[in-house]
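Students often ask why inverse folding is considered easier than folding. One informal answer: many sequences map to the same fold, so there is more than one right answer. In these notes we will look at a single instance of the problem. The structure comes first.
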């Protein structure tokens, strides 16, 4: 029995000019629309996330309360549920899957929200990491529709250093001969494990390892954590799906597309939504400095950095109670205003 819903888009023209055949978005809703349809929250998914993992941000005792709000959790392209290399039509399967941008994701999410759900205003778009990147994209692409955004551990444009970090994990994966330029018959397990091991060094901060906080997760050593990350990526992820989303992440820039034509400052200034930017100062790739720059140009924005030894993974549900409390406080502030 399916616990989610499917929105079929048909053939979609992408920002690149190519066509994504028989496109689909998988999503799940929580709560009910109020009478004036003003209680809508959009919660996209993050890099290795699905709507199921997003449920860690939702709860009756949380700011994202399904008893008060209508929450739409939308799976991004490439995550194995919405259109992805693994489930595409035969001519676009695997390595033949077209390059997808965040502009493409939000264009299709907009169609879901407006055409399928008949919603005209969004109270808040929020999310962690790549989901946060999508919240900026929503606010820049449809500025009249979005009242507030709260990206946490995210940015409106992927920095050069962030791009280089992603090249590192990508190189670890594709060094596996079985990857075969994406035309593998069996998953490149060694490459996926290498991807996971390299990623673990970036996901948490230096303080996390110095203080041996991995022991709080039940690991006796850093090596045990690395093995777990390696096995998780080999067990749960398809290589082409990971690389498809990685390319989307690397190309993240809210000024790409017909509206702003690569004028990044103009794109930032176009955001009308009340905005709270919530970086973690120990995040190794979505840096506080990037959000400080954005804060100069987004007119109704405030910067609320937080310290956490968990680094980028401070936002992962269950990791850092203080981060969770501050996140809920900031979300509540935006929704109450």
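Output (designed amino acids):
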């Amino acid at each position: 029995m399916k616990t989610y819903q499917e929105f079929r888009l048909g053939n979609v023209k992408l920002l690149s000019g190519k066509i994504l055949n028989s496109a689909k978005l998988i999503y799940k809703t929580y709560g009910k629309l109020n009478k004036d349809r003003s209680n809508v929250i959009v919660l996209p998914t993050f890099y290795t996330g699905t709507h199921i993992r997003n449920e860690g941000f939702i709860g009756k005792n949380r700011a994202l309360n399904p008893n008060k709000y209508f929450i739409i959790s939308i799976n991004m392209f490439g995550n194995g549920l919405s259109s992805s290399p693994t489930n595409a039509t035969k001519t676009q399967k695997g390595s033949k899957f077209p390059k997808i941008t965040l502009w493409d994701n939000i264009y299709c999410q907009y169609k879901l929200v407006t055409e399928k759900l008949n919603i005209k205003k969004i109270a808040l778009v929020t999310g962690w990491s790549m989901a946060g990147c999508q919240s900026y994209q929503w606010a820049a692409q449809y500025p009249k529709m979005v009242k507030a955004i709260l990206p946490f551990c995210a940015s409106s444009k992927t920095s050069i250093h962030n791009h280089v970090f992603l090249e590192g994990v990508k190189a670890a994966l594709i060094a596996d001969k079985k990857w075969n330029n994406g035309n593998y018959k069996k998953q490149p397990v060694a490459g996926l494990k290498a991807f996971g091991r390299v990623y673990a060094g970036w996901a948490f901060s230096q303080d996390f390892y110095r203080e041996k906080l991995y022991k709080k997760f039940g690991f006796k050593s850093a090596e045990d954590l690395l093995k777990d990350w390696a096995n998780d990526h080999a067990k749960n992820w398809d290589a082409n799906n990971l690389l498809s989303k990685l390319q989307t992440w690397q190309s993240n820039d809210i000024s790409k597309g017909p509206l702003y034509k690569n004028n990044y400052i103009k794109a930032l200034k176009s955001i009308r939504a009340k905005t709270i930017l919530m970086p973690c100062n120990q995040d190794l790739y979505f840096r506080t400095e990037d959000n400080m720059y954005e804060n100069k140009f987004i007119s109704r924005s405030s910067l609320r950095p937080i310290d956490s030894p968990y680094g980028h993974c401070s936002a992962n549900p269950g990791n850092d109670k203080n981060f969770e409390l501050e996140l809920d406080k900031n979300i509540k502030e935006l929704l109450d205003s």
